[in-house]
């Protein structure tokens, strides 16, 4: 099994990356392969809703989004770690996720999603809500922990002092591991849930 870990921070020694490494240790102990995908320092533009992905099968802007989409199609789950900028995930993370979920048309049903937020102080729960919406619209179960998935720290390495926050991430990784393994067993025995043709209703 494999989980992709998205690092949304542009800083090389960020607290966000520290949190991902904490989860990485738990996944390794659970026998789950991981790969960290750094996007915070990349030039990722936003979606322009051109619709070309419907023809091409991938985003018209050929960058880290398309690279990640290929990896996600083969993976069992993904974790997105982001710093907070003005009570929301940073703009790079939002551009990445919007284009990823809009342009990749493979079935994401039962791939497990999880997000966690790193902030000096506030804005974590608002940013957390933004991440979860990408998973819930895509049939992806969300892994949960003992608290909202927040860690706190300003200066590099400071989040290591947030004992409860780091524990929350360890619990999250264990719960996510269990959920992915359980889903794999369920798919083997029962298959995926039956699909209905999507009904599109506009509110004017």
Describe the fold and architecture.
- The chain has 204 residues and is of the alpha/beta class.
- It has a single domain (2-190), classed as Rossmann fold (3-Layer(aba) Sandwich).
- 41% of the residues lie in helices and 15% in strands.
- It contains 6 helices and 5 strands.
- It has helices at residues 15-29, 53-56, 64-74, 91-103, 124-136, 163-190; strands at residues 2-7, 33-38, 77-83, 112-119, 150-152.
- The protein has a 5-stranded parallel β-sheet with strand order 2-1-3-4-5, sandwiched between helices.
- The protein is globular and about 50 Å long.
- 39% of the residues are buried.
- The model has no long low-confidence stretch (mean pLDDT 97).
Overview in brief:
This protein is α/β, with parallel strands linked by helices and 204 residues long. Helix content is 41%, strand content 15%. It has one domain: Flavodoxin domain (Rossmann fold, 3-Layer(aba) Sandwich).
CATH homologous superfamily heading: Flavodoxin domain
**In oligomeric terms, what are we looking at?**
single chain
Number of helical regions? 6
- What CATH first level would be assigned? Alpha Beta
Helix-strand makeup class: alpha/beta
Low-confidence stretches: none
How many distinct folded domains?
1
For the record, give the distance between the C-alpha atoms at the N and C termini, rounded to a whole number. Answer: 44 Å
Q: Taking Cα atoms only, what radius of gyration do you get, to the nearest Å?
A: 17 Å
Measured as a percent range, the helix fraction is: 40-55%
Overall pLDDT: 97
Number of strands: 5
Please describe the biggest sheet, giving its number of strands, its sense, and whether it closes into a barrel: 5 strands, parallel
CATH topology: Rossmann fold
SSE string, helices as H and strands as E: EHEHHEHEHEH
